[in-house]
Amino acid sequence: MELYLQQKLLEDKKFKKYLDENSSYIKYLNRNPEYYKTFMKEMKERYKERTTDKLSDAINTIDIVSSILDTLN
Question: With contact defined as beta carbons under 8 Å apart, do 23 and 29 qualify?
Fold first, then answer.
């Protein structure tokens, strides 16, 4: 694996944790550093860090606050 890629993966705790849980990615990243984009995409899906996930969480929070305010009135 290329050195800059190793540093990137080990600096972030989320990346390291995901690699520990799914060690097969190490093999793929060793063979092809361009697999990093796929790794990032799957990691974000797993930990719900995509933009759509964040928007969904925000909408859910707004709905909860709205229902609480309706209950108080």
Answer: no
Query: How is residue 19 annotated by DSSP?
Result: H
28, 35 contact by CB (below 8 A): yes
Model pTM score: 0.69
* Residues 6+ positions from 71 with CB-CB distance below 8 Å: none
Q: Is 24 exposed, middle or buried (0-12, 13-18, 19+ CB in 10 A)?
A: exposed
Ordered DSSP codes for 25-69: HHHHHHH-GGGHHHHHHHHHHHTT-SHHHHHHHHHHHHHHHHHHH
For the chain, give the percent of residues with pLDDT over 70: 100
